């Protein structure tokens, strides 16, 4: 047994598919199958039950899953411990964030970090904020970036980003000529909503008085796709003004403030306050502490 086999086993367990797991670990489906067979021969038990394209953990596989996660975590911890013996941060920085944060907030930050600490390899765990919080709590990743507020007493929070939510419309939309819009005006047009998450919860509250006439044309989990469909004229959406800068600069969309609504998206860097972090993580925290919070404002969030 080697760690490559364990990593492949964990990917198959997570994705429930040999082919997709192979893509994640850069191996062919046949190579993945061979690694799983080797593990099964070593343990003397079938680790997965296969029914057509559906792959599920067997009872023996369920037992191995916990041990495999612990062994991989211990290996990563040992690598970080050895890397921390040097004066300059190196090794791996594991950080979690959702898609929008990865696309619109982190690129400049990562560029600055990599310039200062070129010996550190960054691995990104991309998921929803609630999953990021859980991964930090469980020690699966060193740091996370999640939507505020975060109420867990075991987590330290450092605000890093604050931006107003505004209405995004295509440039030829009837509302595009206005300087600002009301919620009542917005509710007259088809909406494109994020499928889940904090922003979706806030939008549901905001439009609740207009549910009888509200038309949700699309529900999409991707900010990039939401913007594309707004530009194409499918509907309008509320999102962080920073996220639509490229479309606004290109003359494809316009962002409009919402009269009488002070609604913000806030992000915080989070980590366990009772855990000794590797130098790669503490260096990232120090970098973020010396950066101003984007779009800082005294206005309160809705």
UniProtKB/TrEMBL annotation:
It comes from the Bacteria. Coiled coil: none annotated. PROSITE patterns: HTH_LYSR. Keywords: DNA-binding, Transcription, Transcription regulation. Transmembrane segments: none annotated. Pfam families: HTH_1, LysR_substrate. Residues 1-58 form the HTH lysR-type domain. InterPro entries: HTH-type_LysR_regulators, LysR_HTH_N, LysR_subst-bd, WH-like_DNA-bd_sf, WH_DNA-bd_sf. Belongs to the LysR transcriptional regulatory family. This is Transcriptional regulator, LysR family.
């Amino acid at each position: 047994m080697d760690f490559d086999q364990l990593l492949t086993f964990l990917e198959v367990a997570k994705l429930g598919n040999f082919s997709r797991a192979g893509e994640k670990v850069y191996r062919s489906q046949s190579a993945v199958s061979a690694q799983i067979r080797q593990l099964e021969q070593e343990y003397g038990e079938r680790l997965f039950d296969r029914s057509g394209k559906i792959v599920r953990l067997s009872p023996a596989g369920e037992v191995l899953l916990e041990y495999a996660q612990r062994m991989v975590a211990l290996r990563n911890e040992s690598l970080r411990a050895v890397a921390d013996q040097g004066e300059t941060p190196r090794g791996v920085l594991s950080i979690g964030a959702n898609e929008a944060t990865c696309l619109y907030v982190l690129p400049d930050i990562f560029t600055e970090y990599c310039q200062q600490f070129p010996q550190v390899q960054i691995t990104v765990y991309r998921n929803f904020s609630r999953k990021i919080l859980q991964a930090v709590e469980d020690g699966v990743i060193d740091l996370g970036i999640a939507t505020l507020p975060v109420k867990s007493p075991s987590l330290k929070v450092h605000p890093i980003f604050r931006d107003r939510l505004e209405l995004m419309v295509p440039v030829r939309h009837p509302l595009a000529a206005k300087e600002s819009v009301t919620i009542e005006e917005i509710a007259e047009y088809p909406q494109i909503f994020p499928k889940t998450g904090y922003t979706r919860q806030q939008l549901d509250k905001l439009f609740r008085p207009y549910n009888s006439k509200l038309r949700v044309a699309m529900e999409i989990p991707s900010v990039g796709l939401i913007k594309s469909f707004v530009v194409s004229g499918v509907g309008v959406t509320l999102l962080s003004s920073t996220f639509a800068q490229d479309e606004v600069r290109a003359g494809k969309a316009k962002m409009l403030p919402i009269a009488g609504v002070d609604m913000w998206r806030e992000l915080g860097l989070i980590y366990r306050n009772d855990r000794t972090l590797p130098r790669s993580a503490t260096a990232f925290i120090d970098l973020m502490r010396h950066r101003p919070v984007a779009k800082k404002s005294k206005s309160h969030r809705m």
